[in-house]
Amino acid sequence: MGLLSVLSLAHKWTSERVQTGDTVIDATAGNGVDTLFLCELAGPKGQVYAFDIQERALHNTRMRLERAQQEGKRLAPVELLLQSHDQMAQAVPEQQHGRVAAVLFNLGYLPDPNADPSLITRPQTTIAALESALALLRPGGLLSIVLYPGHDGGEEEAASVDNWARLLDPQAAQVAEYRMLQKPHAPYLIAIEKRKTNQTKEE
Amino acid sequence: MGLLSVLSLAHKWTSERVQTGDTVIDATAGNGVDTLFLCELAGPKGQVYAFDIQERALHNTRMRLERAQQEGKRLAPVELLLQSHDQMAQAVPEQQHGRVAAVLFNLGYLPDPNADPSLITRPQTTIAALESALALLRPGGLLSIVLYPGHDGGEEEAASVDNWARLLDPQAAQVAEYRMLQKPHAPYLIAIEKRKTNQTKEE
């Protein structure tokens, strides 16, 4: 069967925690693979928010969602937001704060030949966005982060996310890491589950 | 639901690869938790080999298996072997070489108040045993290693296993690591799946 790839495990753990009707967030729409995945999980009664700072990414995502709908897939309504994911708390309605089932981050650059390769996610906004995402999650909700240490600036970003996750209060969230050991530059997964019992943070 | 613990994930991945009737190995019998788990997975038509260098460990394991049988559990026959796991290739019959479905290693010391705390697994025999285990596995079989960096000598052992696993030929095996990031001294898992397509090693 093969060991699960990093992306497959991120999807598997997310799908175990999302029900139809849930609100979920794709923090990095990119080409829309994760957005489509979340739209299918949340279903027509759910709600998806997808962020990207590149018009091309939102265009690619929109195309992918339309194709899926034409193929008869029943998707959640989605808001495609051309803004940085560190603004997500402002974009998600207040009554959904603390009720989001899952947030996906797929960091790095947009894998599109027409994209600007200098546009990559940066540690400072990434950490701010991760903090927002954790606050938006419901207890038991999952924050899933796929890191790409292989590109320029990727290692630095991975190190700062790693460091941030490592220091999260264990009473507030539980953090696991999954990686393919023979490929130190390959993407790897940090999964963060918000605790159910304690609510240590003001939100 | 909580993120899976390291031990639960080791059992989950093992159970996904073992069928009733299979031959499986517990390289570190300890108190018999993994031996019992493997005996249930392999069932009465399977075969389990369990190794430990401490008589007390095999005694504890025997007690646990007997209790389970008295409770009506249907277990695989098991050979409890008082010898170092680096001798496993000699202990397992030759016709089973290359046909073993799974091997579990749970490294460190025996968690028993009457055990000798100076008896811990050591890098040199551990690596030799891991090499044997990989050779004994069938294609698609799983080698699961739980490492304990928290005790004296544990960090050194974990580092050498990590280093060994990291350098395995990707054509021969695939290696994943799973750990809880907030607990650097907690046990963590290295899972190694033998490749199905290539047989690069003479066995």
From TrEMBL, chains A, B:
Keywords: Methyltransferase, Transferase. CDD domains: AdoMet_MTases (cd02440). One of its GO terms (biological process) is methylation. InterPro entries: MnmM_MeTrfase, SAM-dependent_MTases_sf. It holds the Pfam family rRNA_methylase. One of its GO terms (molecular function) is methyltransferase activity. It comes from the Bacteria. This is Methyltransferase domain-containing protein.
